[in-house]
């Protein structure tokens, strides 16, 4: 038979790949990560593609493979990926089967009607799960994945209360560390997990609540409920995004057997779907990271969003916006600000039609906005709205009573600039610091020049501090890692 395509990254995809390897059925398997590839069987007739693909990349890959059948065995929450697979198959006139994960029956209810069952609370989103837990002071074990841990940072004493189970991947662990999760609160393990293993983790965490997605049998949903029942813990279940049509894993095996021996009917190509409406992504400058320094336009846009992304400091500001003006509304809050992770989450949550990414300062001043615009240019179905903010340059110049239209501007945040050379050529220089470069280091580089230096830290907050002096005077100071430097030539 001719080659099959399997879009995997799940236990169902792995089992389909194993089935093909055992029966020597030529197949190409697509997984998003190296870790997913490492779980697949080795075989001369099994070709593995590693790395995420957008719609254009899928079309190109399908052209190269020319398969007789495509199987979509991606995760039930990866809705945008499934949509892209379907559209690519439609454009290439290829037959497609969606392989569904078997749903596990839900145990209990909020009232725990069956004796001994845990309370099971069902919510639609991870943010709703976090909101439910805000008024419950007990420890929590979160098993919904690393990408949505940011929502639980809104809980009081979250560093002491929240424990997370994540994949044992270096990038995932680095992300947890960046968010501030203590290493002792991270279970870095690969499933599947037995009820006994889940119970052991609940006990180690001292958790009274378990947060899980309704991931079906393959996702260990039943084992989690059994463990929670044994521990006397409550369960907060994030429901599936939508009901899908497709076939079970067992039915997929039967289809492959029939195709292998030639007894199966030819699958029909994918028909055209109904047009998908575009969704709105707001890229907003948050000024100094306080509600007071945001524009009214940015605040109003946030209040209409279902999900907000940004660095932890930006999410704190967004949380304050909703606390003051949002009433009972609380969107998903996710500590991501790079295009890849943001679009990956949005693709997995098609129910989110309006989202925002918050950047410090202004969207056009050393901002991450450009990266998002490049991604949208690759065919993502998002309408973009850019809302500018107050830049640190504007704030610093105003605080000093200076004009800045004639200032040279540089950033040493992850960039290499010869600030001394710039100061020798320009009467005014503004520099952003960050990363390995601190303000006191720049002052040391300026030593001996006839200039006056002003360093501003925590601009626009109650901890704002601006210090002015010679480079030599300020070289011995200690400033915050994110500071700005104003350099001005002394009057002759």
TrEMBL record:
<dbReference type="InterPro" id="IPR035996">
    <property type="entry name" value="4pyrrol_Methylase_sf"/>
</dbReference>
<dbReference type="InterPro" id="IPR000878">
    <property type="entry name" value="4pyrrol_Mease"/>
</dbReference>
<dbReference type="InterPro" id="IPR003723">
    <property type="entry name" value="Precorrin-6x_reduct"/>
</dbReference>
<dbReference type="Pfam" id="PF00590">
    <property type="entry name" value="TP_methylase"/>
</dbReference>
<dbReference type="GO" id="GO:0032259">
    <property type="term" value="P:methylation"/>
</dbReference>
<comment type="pathway">
    <text>Cofactor biosynthesis; adenosylcobalamin biosynthesis.</text>
</comment>
<protein>
    <submittedName>
        <fullName>Precorrin-6A reductase</fullName>
        <ecNumber>1.3.1.54</ecNumber>
    </submittedName>
</protein>
<keyword id="KW-0808">Transferase</keyword>
<dbReference type="InterPro" id="IPR012818">
    <property type="entry name" value="CbiE"/>
</dbReference>
<keyword id="KW-0560">Oxidoreductase</keyword>
<dbReference type="GO" id="GO:0009236">
    <property type="term" value="P:cobalamin biosynthetic process"/>
</dbReference>
<keyword id="KW-0489">Methyltransferase</keyword>
<dbReference type="Pfam" id="PF02571">
    <property type="entry name" value="CbiJ"/>
</dbReference>
<dbReference type="InterPro" id="IPR014777">
    <property type="entry name" value="4pyrrole_Mease_sub1"/>
</dbReference>
<feature type="domain" description="Tetrapyrrole methylase">
    <location>
        <begin position="281"/>
        <end position="474"/>
    </location>
</feature>
<keyword id="KW-0949">S-adenosyl-L-methionine</keyword>
<keyword id="KW-0169">Cobalamin biosynthesis</keyword>
<dbReference type="InterPro" id="IPR014776">
    <property type="entry name" value="4pyrrole_Mease_sub2"/>
</dbReference>
<dbReference type="GO" id="GO:0016994">
    <property type="term" value="F:precorrin-6A reductase activity"/>
</dbReference>
<dbReference type="GO" id="GO:0008276">
    <property type="term" value="F:protein methyltransferase activity"/>
</dbReference>
């Amino acid at each position: 038979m001719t080659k099959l395509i399997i879009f995997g990254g799940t236990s169902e995809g792995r089992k389909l790949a194993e089935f093909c390897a055992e029966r020597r059925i030529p197949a190409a398997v697509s997984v998003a990560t190296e870790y997913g590839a490492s779980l697949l069987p080795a075989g001369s007739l099994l070709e593995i593609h590693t790395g995420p693909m957008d719609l254009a990349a899928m079309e190109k890959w399908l052209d190269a493979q020319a398969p007789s059948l495509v199987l979509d065995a991606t995760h039930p929450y990866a809705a945008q990926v499934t949509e892209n697979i379907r559209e690519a198959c439609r454009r290439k006139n290829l037959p497609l089967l969606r392989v569904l994960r078997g749903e596990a029956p839900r145990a209990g209810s909020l009232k725990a009607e069956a004796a001994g069952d845990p309370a099971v609370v069902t919510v639609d989103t991870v943010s709703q799960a976090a909101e439910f837990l805000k008024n419950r002071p007990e420890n929590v074990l979160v098993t919904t994945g690393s990408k949505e841990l940011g929502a639980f940072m809104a809980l009081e004493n979250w560093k002491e209360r929240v424990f997370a189970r994540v994949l044992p991947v270096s990038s995932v662990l680095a992300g947890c560390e960046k968010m501030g999760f203590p290493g002792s609160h991270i279970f870095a393990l690969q499933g599947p997990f037995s009820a006994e293993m889940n119970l052991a983790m609940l006990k180690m965490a001292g958790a009274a609540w378990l947060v899980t997605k309704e991931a079906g049998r393959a996702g260990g949903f039943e084992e989690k409920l059994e463990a929670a029942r044994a521990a006397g813990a409550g369960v907060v279940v994030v429901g599936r995004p939508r009901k899908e049509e497709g076939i079970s894993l067992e039915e997929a095996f039967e289809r492959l057997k029939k195709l292998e021996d030639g007894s199966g009917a030819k699958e029909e190509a994918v028909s055209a779907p109904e047009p998908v409406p575009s969704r709105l992504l707001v890229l907003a400058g948050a000024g100094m990271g306080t509600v007071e320094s945001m524009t009214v336009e940015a605040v109003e846009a946030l209040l209409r969003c279902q999900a907000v992304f940004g660095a932890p400091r930006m999410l704190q500001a967004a949380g304050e916006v909703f606390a003051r003006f949002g009433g009972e509304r609380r969107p998903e809050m996710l500590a991501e600000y790079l295009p890849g992770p943001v679009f990956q989450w949005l693709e997995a949550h098609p129910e989110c039609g309006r989202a925002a990414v918050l950047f410090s300062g202004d969207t056009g001043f050393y901002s991450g906005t450009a990266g998002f615009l490049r991604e949208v240019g690759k065919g993502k179905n998002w309408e973009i709205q850019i809302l500018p903010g107050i830049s640190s340059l504007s704030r610093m110049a105003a605080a000093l009573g200076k004009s800045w239209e004639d200032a040279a501007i540089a950033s040493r945040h992850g960039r290499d600039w010869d600030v001394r050379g710039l100061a020798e050529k320009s009467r005014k220089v503004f520099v952003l610091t960050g990363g390995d470069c601190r303000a006191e280091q720049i002052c040391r580089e300026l030593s001996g020049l006839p200039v006056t230096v002003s360093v501003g830290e925590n601009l626009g907050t109650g901890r704002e501090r601006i210090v002015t002096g010679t480079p030599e005077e300020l070289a011995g100071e200690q400033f915050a890692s994110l500071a700005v430097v104003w350099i001005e030539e002394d009057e002759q």
